[in-house]
Each structure stands twice: as structure tokens, then as C-alpha cells.
UniProtKB/TrEMBL annotation:
Residue intervals of the Ribosomal protein/NADH dehydrogenase domain: 28-58
Family: Belongs to the complex I NDUFA2 subunit family.
SUPFAM superfamilies, alphabetized: Thioredoxin-like
Known function: Accessory subunit of the mitochondrial membrane respiratory chain NADH dehydrogenase (Complex I), that is believed not to be involved in catalysis. Complex I functions in the transfer of electrons from NADH to the respiratory chain. The immediate electron acceptor for the enzyme is believed to be ubiquinone.
Topology versus the membrane: Peripheral membrane protein
The name this protein goes by in its record: Ribosomal protein/NADH dehydrogenase domain-containing protein
Keywords: Electron transport, Membrane, Mitochondrion, Mitochondrion inner membrane, Respiratory chain, Transport
Subcellular location, record wording: Mitochondrion inner membrane
InterPro entries per the UniProt record, alphabetical: NADH_Ub_cplx-1_asu_su-2, Ribosomal_mL43/mS25/NADH_DH, Thioredoxin-like_sf
Source domain of life: Eukaryota
Protein's organism: Gigaspora rosea
Gene Ontology terms: cellular component: mitochondrial inner membrane
Keyword Membrane attributed: yes
Amino acid sequence: MTWRSQLSKYLKELRVHFCQTSPASKGVREFIAQNYRSLKAANPHFPILIREASGVIARFSN
């Protein structure tokens, strides 16, 4: 997808916060598992920070 290669044009970094076990974070865990490698390959110098913590509400921030 085109947006993957243009992340660094619009963001300084991408932070992903989620819980390792919470059902509410399941979608975020699946997104990371399916898309992290392609996002990082398309943006090798762009910081993508993945933060897992127990009980954290899933969110993306920049």
C-alpha cells in the first residue's frame, strides 16, 4: 500500500501501546503481527515503537 511508504512524510514516529493478553488489544496484536515487517521494510529509518504492558488500553500515537 502506498501509505506505508509515506509514513515518515507525515509523522515523526509511530508508537503502539497495547496489552499482551487483553481481548481489547487483540486487533492491535494482529495488526502488528501482520504488518510490522512490511512497514519497517518500507520505512527503514522511521521509528516504530512497540510497547507491551499489562492492562494498557490499546492505542496508536504519534
